[in-house]
Amino acid sequence: MNVAIEPGRSTLVLVDFQQRLLPASHRGIEVVAEAARLADCARALGVRVVGTEQNPRGLGPNAEAISDRCDRLVSKMHFNACEDGLVQWLRAPGHPAPTDVVVAGCETHVCMMQTAHGLQRAGFHVWIAANACGSRFPGDYELAMARLRQSGAVLASVETIVFEWLRSCEHPRFRQVLEILKAPRG
After folding, report:
1. Which of 21, 79, 80, 97 has the fewest CB atoms within 10 Å distance of its CB?
2. Closest alpha carbon to 52 in 68, 33, 67, 64
3. How far apart are CA 65 and CA 118, in angstroms?
4. Cβ-based neighbour number of residue 186 at 10 Å
């Protein structure tokens, strides 16, 4: 098991932060705010950010706070985004293929979890930004987190992931990222 995230070999995947789903999601506003902070830090550190949208014709687009921060959006019909081209995009020429994929998203117990498991099957080390994930019901969220942990995914907070990307207060982007993390939430 990989116990340290590799910042130069990471990608952030934001799963299905769709506007129509968020009002029904437990802690929906907080989850989007945490995902946006994570994406802002990732972008400041040169980590690619990809978003997914489940059946966008039926469920609509991602929240603007998420879609504006993505380098790429993958539209999908499968719950597991890997079945709709996510892995091919992550391994596309022109960028080093990541070894570590940080995942956050909505419906934690469905699309986010199935995508995380698909990434694991494809050979990636998967990190879950637990406080940037949400489900309609807290019990579904808790069960999904337990299952992800059992499958070998590493659960961490947004700040834990960001500080592991930084490694040191001497990182050239430390102050910039610290300002993002200190900004008022919500």
Report:
1. 97
2. 67
3. 26
4. 7
Give the number of other Cβ atoms within 10 Å of residue 138's Cβ.
11
Tokens 């930004």 found at: 129
CA distances from 152 to 9, 12, 18, 100 (A): 19, 18, 27, 13
- For residue 180, what pLDDT is reported? 95
| Run of H or E including 164 | helix 158-166
Distance of CA 184 to the CA centre of its chain: 21
Please name the residue ranges forming H helices in the chain.
Answer: 28-44, 56-59, 64-67, 86-90, 113-121, 138-150, 158-166, 174-182
State the pLDDT confidence band at 4, using cuts at 50, 70 and 90. Answer: confident
Phi, psi of 52 (to 5 degrees): -125, 155
Rounded (5°) CA angle 16-52-97: 135
**pLDDT band, residue 21 (cuts 50/70/90):** confident
CB distance 153 to 128 below 8 Å = yes
